[in-house]
Records
---
Amino acid sequence: MATVLADTKHLAMADFKGKVDPDWCPGCGDFGVLAAVQKALVDLQIPNHNVVTISGIGCSSNFPGFINTYGMHTLHGRALAVATGVKLANHELTVLVTGGDGDGFGIGGNHFMHTMRRNVDVLYIVMDNQIYGLTTGQTSPTSRVGMKTKSMPFGNIESPVNPISLALTAGATFVARGFSADQKHLTELIKQGIQHQGFSFLDVFSPCVTYNHDNTFQWFRPRVKKLEDDPAYNSTDWMAAMEKSLLWGDEIPIGKFFERTDLPALHAAEPVLDAGPLVHSDPHIPPDVARSFVEELM
Amino acid sequence: MKKTFTIGIGGAAGQGVATPGDIFAKIFSRRGLHLNAYNAYQSIIRGGHTFLTIRTGPEKVTNMGDRIDLLIPLNQDAMDRHLGLLTNGAACIYNADTIKPGAAAEGVALCPLPVSKLADISRNKVAQNTLAVGAGLSMMGIGFQSLEQVLSEQFKKKGDAVVSENVGIARAGYDYATANFKSFAWPLPLTGKRYAVLSGNTAMAMGGAAAGVKFYCAYPMSPSTGVLHWMASHARKAGIMVRQVEDEIGVVNMAIGAAHAGVRSMCATSGGGFALMSEGLGLSAMMETPVVVIDCQRAGPSTGVPTKTEQGDLWQMLGAAFGDYPRAIAAPLDIGDCFKIIPEMFNIADRFQCPGIVLCDLLLSEGRLSVDPEDLDFAPVVDRGELITTAPADSGSNGEGAYKRYKFTASGISPRAVPGVPGHTHTAASDEHDEDGVLISDEFTNPTKRRAMMEKRMRKVAGIEAAVPPPALSGPREADVTLIGWGSTNGVIAEACEILNDQGISANQLQIRWLVPLHGEAILNTLKNARHTIIVENNYSGQFARYLRSETSFVPNGHIRKYDGEPFMPHHIVAAVKEQLGGSVSLSVPAHEILV
């Protein structure tokens, strides 16, 4: 029999609705990601005020405004750096980082790599549409070779980055890929990513219906294959994950590529946080400690 | 004139210039003598030339001074570079086995130490340094026990044998000097006081700890790295999270993240790193999340001269980040002030929810000064401003009349709820936003709302101005010349004024500590009756002079500027003032005589 605590409000989808409705183009893949995040938070019953959603700049980075949690809509490419600061100052918060492929793999590429190797306990969701949308359609770090855009009108001649193998190489301890059109599967991955203690990377195919005419919902639908459907696939096997990450074409794997749980998250590895979150700590240095600092200089 | 005694130690990097310097500093401060140490060095780990100046005396010492009383060259190069600086009454102690003295001025005592006869140099590679320290202390009239004590502490970890070996070598140098060299005319006194000796970087780090900083992050960059080192080595005792980040862009954004979550958060860098932080300062201003950034200036532009000092970043600070936004910028006046300025800046940043910039420079960051331990106050006023850190769990959500993060107020300050507080969820954005945080940058652009929010933020400027005192004139009210400086030149300008007053030219000083807010009206009032005004600064273009003019239309009678990487010495300013009062020039650029 279920026990209902009188002072605990059951959170529903409506509780996570933001102050304004999304301004994404009708049909944008990002709607599916927003709904899946809200559903995951409802399923996990995490109170709104204990969640911080942090983004950079771009279409998908408008995300924090559309969800009722604490939000930070920061600078282009800098969301992971800001999120690291938030998590280290108050590690009791659930920190979600949302953004696009240009934001995360282009201008924010350096922070992406270093946040992964640090194993900061955040879930990083990249709404990967393989294009720059808000700047009206330029080549992104994940645009395919040959794709014609306003910035490369004769076709892209640069190889795209592979976010999954990059994350595996950089030391992410949870690496997954979702598809915006598969709500149930995506919600499950988000829940796992939130619950994972360490850096969780979730690359989501979130097609741009306005500027990317190559990688559309229709293009992805027949290609995506869930790793969970293969009983032989072992997501604790890094080499197997690496091999799967290289698949692209007629078959594109989605699902959880890799997870390891044996490494501490950054906040758990730092003894300064043993006494609890910094935000609750006494700002004053104890007098005996202060005296010892001065004595060293005499 | 106050009485001081200055030691110059020169050698190659890696030859152990720092250790004798530390030993002298410890002995002087324990005698209750004040001291100022400045190390002219190069960006090289082994080799090159390093020249450490330690100036001491019973009264406050604020700069390297004009005179070297004792030179200790550790190699021929140091001898060749600096012997010519010595004048009557000075002495030079050197290793007679390896170094040949040049021609010394009259009255300079050459004191050769027969190093290989006094110590086993095959066993102890720095024996010449230890012998010289012992000899020097004998000539200064300081008892051997104080040296024995310091050496015992220094080598304690290496065991009794190493301690007694070094004490023995020092003793040999001490006794040899007592028997063979003439003592200095002025034996160094004992005052009964005790001072702490620290660098500006250590002072700013400790000031941060005192201010309640709980998050510090940085990317190593000379001359700011000392702040990181102190923070890192004291983090666990002080309960501070210290992170080394991949670049300064990451640094400032991580610091802002931590600040946004509710802790006091600080970072330090130099000009190049600060350039990368510029966009982040705008983020701090727009989200109204306070952060304190320290910029330790070095000679620029670009990589510039990483080990040399300059006051060349002022306009970078003034122009950092695009758009108009409230902020505070202050330059510490000395190393003791490096400590005090941090809690002050945090109170301003927290109260007005804006970035605060501390504009230091290599001279203070890496120089060392004796400070009264009482002045290192670890219980300063901590004013977090209008910060909401708790609320009942049943606090309403985002319904009608709900919490507005950017609420319009008369002061422009809106109470700031940190993530985790129930009932106060909101989005803080780098985009322009409405009172409740909703973006008015994209779909809901609105000129009326934009104007109102801009004015709300900028109302804080008046509050910051009222919270910070205007600068005050020091010295005689009426003077032949008024010297105007900012930040780290405080001590050397003050000493130049003393010398001028002694020489019959009355001089006073207006030193600027708060650059933003500047208090232009108060400055104009102070200067309106000045007979002759000269702005003294460590840069090429007169950055402060240009700033003062842009804010107040004030134009001084003259300028003294130095941009060779080395700090001012008092005589540079004195000579330039005389030259300008003589009417021949209005811009003086003193030459640095010490070749470093």
Note: Chain B touches chain A through 79 residues (CB under 8 Å).
---
Amino acid sequence: MSAPRPDVAPPQPWTFPAPVEHLLGNGLRVLAHDLPGQYVLSLRVVVPTVLSDEPSGKEGVGAMTARMLDEGTAAHGSDEFAELMERHGMVLGAGVSDGGLLVDVDVPQRHLGTAAELLAEALAHPVFPDDEVRRILRNRLAEIEQERASSAHRAARELARTMWSATDRASRPTAGTSESIGRLTREDLVEFHATAVGPQGATVVVAGDLTGVDVVGVLEQTLGNWSAPRHRPPSRPVAPVPAPDAARVVVVDRPGSVQTEIAVGRPGPDRSTPEGWAPHPVLSFVLGGSPSARIDAVLREEKGYTYGIRSAFRPRVAGGSFVTSGSVRSEVTGEAVEILLGILDRAREGFTDAEVRSGVDYVGKTAPGRYATADAVADETAALALEGLPLDFTTRNLRAVAALGRDDLDRAYRRVATGEWSVVLVGDASTVVPALEGRVEGPVSTVAR
Amino acid sequence: MPLDYPIDRRTLSNGLRVVVSPDHTVPNVTVNLWVGVGSRHETVGRTGFAHLFEHLMFQGSRNVRSGEHFEALMAQGGRLNATTWFDRTNYFETVPTGAVELALWLEADRHGNLLDAVTQENLDNQRDVVKEEKRQRYDNQPYGNALIDVYAAIFPQGHPYHHPTIGSMEDLDAASLDDVHAFFRAHYGPDNTVLTLCGDLTAEQGFELVERYFGDLPSAAVPRRPDLAQLAPMEAPVRVERREAVPNDRLHVAFRLPVDETDEFLAAAVALDCIGGLATSRLVRRLVRRDQTALGAHATAWGFVDGASLGFVVLDVAPGTDPALVEATFVEELTGFLEHGPTDVELEASLAQSERSWLSALASQEERADLISHHLLLHDDPGVVNTHLDRLRDVTAQQVLDAARRWLRPDSRATVAYLTADDATDAGPATTEDVA
């Protein structure tokens, strides 16, 4: 005889770890998390920049500058720098988001000193060798073609183009288009680095086992020497402007596709919204966060049309979006889109108490595990720094999640879901377009892949 | 730095091997089960079945309705999933400490009493879901089927690794309820399963709970066949060419390797690191940085247990470059490596990168539990989590050279080339064409 179904003991209250804060002599803010047992340290440098500050026609200059930071410095050639990183078990990634230039480093604790030194070199003294600049730009052009060939990437790009005003930077790829990349020169990158990348207003997060480590001492001697005399503070970030004709359906023709990639979007809030951020992760879970969520309960578990469709609120530094995306087999595209939009629209009628409970419990009770590693803690604290949120935001938000009721979810969803969806379908237009007839509202247009 | 993650192990009377690894830094427990069945155990005409079966494990069991496994655990703050691979199937959840008993009860119900609840309707539905998974991850992706071609080219017909875990559409269509019953009886049972508890509990608590929920499960699995003998390297090169709508030419160059957890496998993996795995590997320096004939070069070694492992290098050919030139340069670099072996700096870099990635994996309770189950099930040695880096440190340049000379000869390679279609037209930047 098997044992009876056991009861569950409720978890103890939990708080997101609080970092220790310091200010280095050059104005760089340090946020340090001591997490015993986390032997690989995660460093995150956040330099506030604003995408729309990129010179017109030179979109992607920020991302290309970021990719060039470790391709040769005043002290080390490109190969030499890579070898130094590799021999010290260090890995470095750099890129830009809508609100900042971000450099991530992971390194075993005993190599922190070397890692901080190389990181400081990359930020303060990159030399942008001609040959490496050409290679990075050429690789970006090839990457654009690879993204164009991938349904999911292609859908994301077209959704941004459809949702946001053509004059808004958010409507174009963060890392640039083939046209804008083709126009970039080494001088553009050098100029961007000199004026947009500096320690003033920037933050470095260090998370991991800091037993016996003098973090402030190490950082003061490395990143503390970073200066950028021509650095100008970025403009104030503003939410992207929606396109006047955002509520429409765009089919991206990808002949021969065996699936149609679906992306449905609406503008949404950022995490500092005065209405409160708390309901949004819960809504994501209830609509498209599990096999039992409203969308997959029908399209996956009942119909078997998809491997899974996800809904998510995606906050930017200012503004954000609510995006539902996934793929279905080509033959059922019309029906699947109709069902999906129906579910998203009908959710405006309200959520059930059971749904609220399940979403609140999932978001709240998974938090200790989601933030259990150095890289996850560093990522969250870096995001708080980037978004200008207080360091106790994560904990306060979890308390607000626990207190949510049906009305909170209903109100938050109705603010976003007005029924005016931007819908992008990447698939074989010869079958997809006819299948949409009578199933979607508003104009349907077709674009080439 | 010597690692000392606690490893307490016991075997229940029904054969279930259990490890408890206490870690009180987070109020969570990971429950991780590995079952000794993967796509290598599938029969002709039933490829993809181990994975399809894994999906059915979420569709209800004797005391659990369809979908309840996910719902019940997520509502308690559980994060969970399952995966199927060549050698095994794993099931895992990380839950708040107070929900560990619920997790064990749910796992025991499906691992002991699945067949009471399996229906034709659930099978048909999950067959459709798996076919969409195959379309999404393989058929609708550029280069999506390249590794499937690699398996078929490098492993002989009938070998356990000749076919992919995802299987074929025809075989998925052919799967019946009878297959589900036979598969469960042949492969699922405590004597073909291991269970790891990692997290906020003591070893005694852990063993007591596992005994309570799994102790009554009868030994059930059919005795396992012994693993196959080591497959020798290929005698002559093999080449497969596909012309498709891909953005650029891509070469996948594969080699048979020794089975996992042998000194020779570790040495061969280090060799592949030096050749193409590191950011400063020979192929990256030559093809990507110097010649700029490749956009990227990446090497991987996957350890398996059934008579062979797999090593492969992926070379993204720069647009406008002849892929034959890239392959010739690859052979030249490989030949150079086989003459002198790795430099001290290459060995140092490989070890340093392996150390970081191993420590990063162990940093998360979920991955640590998974590594413990892995080495418990397939190698009967869960302590590998603590000893792996010491073994890597002992790998010598001569061992790397010897392994490379035996396993990575240019003549032993299979090349799978995905080439841009001759008639592929460049559509140019997206423009609006018509309005329906």
Note: Chain B has two domains: 8-214, 238-420.
